Amino acid sequence: MRVIITGCGRVGAQLAQLLSYEGHDVVVIDRDEGSFLRLPAGFNGITMTGVAFDESTLLEAGIEFADAVAAVTNYDNTNLMVAEIASRLYDVPKVIARLYDPEKRRVFEKLGVNYVCGTTLVAERMMHKLLQGEVLIHQERYDPGVRVMEFKVPWLARRMTVGDLDVNGQARVLALQRSGRQIR
Length: 184
Fold this sequence. Notes:
Number of strands: 10
Radius of gyration: 21 Å
Helix content: 25-40%
Strand order of the largest sheet: 3-2-1-4-5-6
Structural class: alpha/beta
Order of helices and strands: EHEEHEHEHEHEEEE
Strand content: 25-35%
Shape: elongated
Number of domains: 2
Distance between the termini: 44 Å
CATH superfamily of the largest domain: NAD(P)-binding Rossmann-like Domain
Protein backbone atom coordinates (compact mmCIF):
# COMPACT_ATOMS: atom_id res chain seq x y z
CA MET A 1 0.00 0.00 0.00
CA ARG A 2 1.26 3.51 -0.83
CA VAL A 3 0.78 5.79 2.18
CA ILE A 4 1.41 9.50 2.56
CA ILE A 5 1.92 10.79 6.09
CA THR A 6 1.83 14.52 6.70
CA GLY A 7 3.66 15.45 9.88
CA CYS A 8 6.76 13.80 11.28
CA GLY A 9 6.34 14.46 14.97
CA ARG A 10 6.29 11.58 17.42
CA VAL A 11 3.04 10.14 16.05
CA GLY A 12 3.94 10.60 12.39
CA ALA A 13 7.42 9.11 12.84
CA GLN A 14 6.04 6.13 14.77
CA LEU A 15 3.32 5.53 12.17
CA ALA A 16 5.84 5.81 9.32
CA GLN A 17 8.14 3.33 11.05
CA LEU A 18 5.33 0.83 11.67
CA LEU A 19 4.00 1.01 8.10
CA SER A 20 7.47 0.84 6.58
CA TYR A 21 8.32 -2.16 8.74
CA GLU A 22 5.19 -3.88 7.44
CA GLY A 23 6.44 -3.39 3.88
CA HIS A 24 4.29 -0.45 2.76
CA ASP A 25 5.58 2.35 0.55
CA VAL A 26 5.66 5.41 2.80
CA VAL A 27 6.16 9.08 1.99
CA VAL A 28 6.50 11.45 4.95
CA ILE A 29 6.00 15.20 4.50
CA ASP A 30 7.00 17.78 7.12
CA ARG A 31 7.83 21.45 6.89
CA ASP A 32 10.82 21.05 9.23
CA GLU A 33 13.60 18.94 7.79
CA GLY A 34 14.95 18.32 11.30
CA SER A 35 11.81 16.38 12.20
CA PHE A 36 12.96 13.51 9.99
CA LEU A 37 15.63 12.78 12.62
CA ARG A 38 12.82 11.08 14.57
CA LEU A 39 12.70 8.35 11.93
CA PRO A 40 14.81 5.28 12.70
CA ALA A 41 18.03 4.61 10.83
CA GLY A 42 16.43 1.68 9.00
CA PHE A 43 13.50 3.71 7.64
CA ASN A 44 13.25 2.93 3.93
CA GLY A 45 10.53 5.41 2.96
CA ILE A 46 10.77 8.79 1.30
CA THR A 47 10.95 12.09 3.19
CA MET A 48 9.89 15.42 1.73
CA THR A 49 10.20 18.91 3.17
CA GLY A 50 7.13 21.02 2.47
CA VAL A 51 3.75 22.30 3.61
CA ALA A 52 1.35 19.43 4.23
CA PHE A 53 -1.62 20.90 2.37
CA ASP A 54 0.34 22.39 -0.54
CA GLU A 55 -1.05 20.72 -3.64
CA SER A 56 2.27 20.69 -5.51
CA THR A 57 3.94 18.99 -2.53
CA LEU A 58 1.15 16.41 -2.37
CA LEU A 59 1.42 15.80 -6.12
CA GLU A 60 5.18 15.33 -5.81
CA ALA A 61 4.50 12.82 -3.00
CA GLY A 62 2.23 10.90 -5.38
CA ILE A 63 -1.19 11.64 -3.96
CA GLU A 64 -2.82 10.62 -7.26
CA PHE A 65 -1.62 7.07 -6.64
CA ALA A 66 -1.91 6.96 -2.84
CA ASP A 67 -3.94 4.22 -1.21
CA ALA A 68 -4.01 6.07 2.10
CA VAL A 69 -3.23 9.45 3.65
CA ALA A 70 -2.66 10.05 7.36
CA ALA A 71 -2.71 13.72 8.37
CA VAL A 72 -0.93 13.78 11.73
CA THR A 73 0.55 17.26 12.07
CA ASN A 74 0.23 19.21 15.32
CA TYR A 75 -2.49 21.43 13.83
CA ASP A 76 -6.14 20.41 13.56
CA ASN A 77 -6.86 22.83 10.71
CA THR A 78 -3.90 21.56 8.69
CA ASN A 79 -4.98 17.96 9.24
CA LEU A 80 -8.53 18.82 8.22
CA MET A 81 -7.32 20.52 5.02
CA VAL A 82 -5.07 17.62 4.09
CA ALA A 83 -7.91 15.16 4.68
CA GLU A 84 -10.32 17.21 2.57
CA ILE A 85 -7.83 17.56 -0.30
CA ALA A 86 -6.96 13.85 -0.23
CA SER A 87 -10.54 12.59 -0.08
CA ARG A 88 -12.43 15.16 -2.13
CA LEU A 89 -9.92 16.20 -4.79
CA TYR A 90 -7.92 13.01 -5.22
CA ASP A 91 -10.35 10.30 -4.09
CA VAL A 92 -7.76 8.63 -1.87
CA PRO A 93 -9.54 5.49 -0.59
CA LYS A 94 -8.38 5.70 3.04
CA VAL A 95 -7.92 9.06 4.74
CA ILE A 96 -7.57 9.69 8.45
CA ALA A 97 -6.74 12.83 10.38
CA ARG A 98 -5.35 13.44 13.82
CA LEU A 99 -7.48 15.64 16.06
CA TYR A 100 -5.99 17.43 19.07
CA ASP A 101 -8.92 19.48 20.31
CA PRO A 102 -11.98 17.32 21.08
CA GLU A 103 -14.13 20.46 20.82
CA LYS A 104 -13.51 20.42 17.04
CA ARG A 105 -14.79 16.87 16.59
CA ARG A 106 -18.19 18.05 15.35
CA VAL A 107 -16.56 19.92 12.47
CA PHE A 108 -14.64 16.79 11.45
CA GLU A 109 -17.79 14.68 11.78
CA LYS A 110 -19.97 17.10 9.78
CA LEU A 111 -17.42 17.11 6.98
CA GLY A 112 -17.23 13.32 7.08
CA VAL A 113 -13.54 13.28 7.96
CA ASN A 114 -12.38 10.10 9.65
CA TYR A 115 -10.28 11.06 12.67
CA VAL A 116 -8.55 9.88 15.80
CA CYS A 117 -8.52 12.18 18.81
CA GLY A 118 -5.50 11.37 20.93
CA THR A 119 -6.73 13.58 23.75
CA THR A 120 -9.97 11.61 24.04
CA LEU A 121 -8.24 8.24 23.65
CA VAL A 122 -5.73 8.97 26.39
CA ALA A 123 -8.36 10.44 28.72
CA GLU A 124 -10.67 7.43 28.25
CA ARG A 125 -7.82 4.99 28.75
CA MET A 126 -6.67 6.77 31.90
CA MET A 127 -10.23 6.85 33.22
CA HIS A 128 -10.48 3.13 32.56
CA LYS A 129 -7.27 2.48 34.48
CA LEU A 130 -8.35 4.76 37.33
CA LEU A 131 -11.64 2.93 37.63
CA GLN A 132 -9.74 -0.35 37.54
CA GLY A 133 -11.83 -1.75 34.75
CA GLU A 134 -15.20 -0.88 36.30
CA VAL A 135 -16.41 0.74 33.07
CA LEU A 136 -15.22 -0.15 29.57
CA ILE A 137 -16.37 2.06 26.69
CA HIS A 138 -16.43 0.09 23.46
CA GLN A 139 -17.77 2.77 21.11
CA GLU A 140 -19.07 6.32 21.32
CA ARG A 141 -21.01 8.37 18.78
CA TYR A 142 -21.66 11.99 19.73
CA ASP A 143 -24.22 12.77 16.99
CA PRO A 144 -26.98 10.46 18.21
CA GLY A 145 -25.58 10.40 21.76
CA VAL A 146 -24.90 6.67 21.82
CA ARG A 147 -22.26 4.99 23.97
CA VAL A 148 -21.69 1.24 23.99
CA MET A 149 -20.36 0.38 27.43
CA GLU A 150 -19.65 -2.66 29.50
CA PHE A 151 -19.79 -2.61 33.28
CA LYS A 152 -20.45 -4.92 36.15
CA VAL A 153 -23.47 -4.43 38.36
CA PRO A 154 -23.41 -5.45 42.00
CA TRP A 155 -24.54 -8.95 42.94
CA LEU A 156 -27.52 -7.36 44.72
CA ALA A 157 -28.85 -6.32 41.29
CA ARG A 158 -29.15 -9.94 40.14
CA ARG A 159 -32.95 -9.81 40.25
CA MET A 160 -33.21 -6.57 38.27
CA THR A 161 -34.45 -6.45 34.70
CA VAL A 162 -33.00 -4.38 31.86
CA GLY A 163 -35.81 -1.83 32.34
CA ASP A 164 -34.91 -1.45 36.01
CA LEU A 165 -31.46 -0.18 35.02
CA ASP A 166 -32.69 2.81 32.98
CA VAL A 167 -31.60 6.12 34.51
CA ASN A 168 -34.47 8.66 34.43
CA GLY A 169 -34.37 9.19 30.68
CA GLN A 170 -30.63 9.93 30.82
CA ALA A 171 -29.48 6.43 29.92
CA ARG A 172 -31.14 3.34 28.56
CA VAL A 173 -29.75 -0.15 28.90
CA LEU A 174 -30.34 -2.21 25.78
CA ALA A 175 -28.98 -5.57 26.89
CA LEU A 176 -27.86 -7.35 30.00
CA GLN A 177 -25.65 -10.39 30.22
CA ARG A 178 -25.74 -12.86 33.08
CA SER A 179 -23.53 -15.93 33.24
CA GLY A 180 -22.66 -15.54 29.56
CA ARG A 181 -26.32 -15.28 28.44
CA GLN A 182 -27.86 -12.11 27.06
CA ILE A 183 -31.09 -10.99 28.76
CA ARG A 184 -33.38 -8.35 27.27
